[in-house]
Amino acid sequence: MQGHCASLGIAQDSPFDGTYLPYQTGDGSGTIDAADVANYGLWPPTSIGLVADATLLPTYTPTGPVPTLPTETFPTPTPSVSIDGGDGWYNSADTSSGMITVAGCPYPNAWDATAVPVPVAVCTGPAAALLARETVPLPVITNAH
Hints:
The chain is largely without helices or strands. About 10% of the residues lie in helices and about 5% in strands. It contains three helices and two strands; from the N terminus they run H-H-H-E-E. It has helices at about 5, 20-25, 35-40, and strands at about 60-65, 100. The chain is extended, with a radius of gyration of 23 Å. The two termini are about 40 Å apart.
């Protein structure tokens, strides 16, 4: 809703200062419980579902280009006007690299990896040797409660 933030006294593009308001954390203190951070704030996670050691799963490295989408093109109106759609990246100060696969490491099909076994060793590149793999169980449909 245009103008809504300004009507609440909130400046546009104001960065998050790291402090949560009491209603945002549920306990009124404005901080997230340390036990919740320990359980859910770890990245990468050490376990995911039935995969006991998620550190063995294929990983990505932040060394690639940032993917951007082309800006929209418009038919030329009459009279002719120029529209600058930018370069597809809003924050020019954000120069972080994009996430890409680790060269030389195998990756499962992202759209069909249900029965792909979990590696038994972490792949770090061309010199990494993958040993025997453990099979990940197929998903099971459970009844709703």
